[in-house]
Amino acid sequence: MGAGRVFDNLKDFALFERVLAGVCLLTPLVLIGLDGWPARNSISAYYSIAGNQWFYFLLTAAVMMFVVNAFVREQHYYNLVLGIGLALIVLFNHKDSVVAHFAGVILFFAGNVVVIALFSRGPGLKIKLTFLAVMTLALVALLLPWWTLFWAEWLSMAAIAGHFLLDSSPYEYQAIPRGDRPSLAA
Fold it and tell me: pTM score, two decimals?
C-alpha cells in the first residue's frame, strides 16, 4: 500500500470520526424522539424504553468511536479507557448493576474532563477551556431544581463530541499536537 493510499485512508477515517461524533451528539435527541416528552432523568434511564435497541445501538456506536480512535490515531490511547467507561454504562444498567454502571459513568465523564484538561495547550486552548467550562456548568446546574442529570449528560456529551469533531478537523485544534503526522483534513 503506497503512502498516498494511507493518507486517503486517514482522511476517510477523519470523516468517519466526525459522523460518529455527530451520532454521539444527537443520541439524547433521538432517545427523546423515541420515548416522548418529557426527557427522562438521565440518558442511562433510556435503557428500558420500548425501542431500547436504539439506546444500545447509538451508545455502542459511540463506544466504537472511542475504541477505534485509540488504535488508529497516534497517542490517543486514553480513548480506549474512555470507550471502556462508556461500554460499562451500556453493559450495566443503573438499576441492577449500580457499582459497575457508576464506575463507567465516572470513568467516562470524569475521564473526558481529565483528557481535555490534560491536553489543553496549543492554538485550541481557548476552545478546550470552553469545553471544560460547559461540562463544569452542566454539573453545577444540577443544584437547580429543574435541571436534571439528563441535561448535564447531554451538555457534557456535546462538549465531548465538539472536542472530537474539532480534533479530527483541519483546524489547528488538537488534543495532542500533530507534530510530523499527516493531516486528517478531509
Answer: 0.76
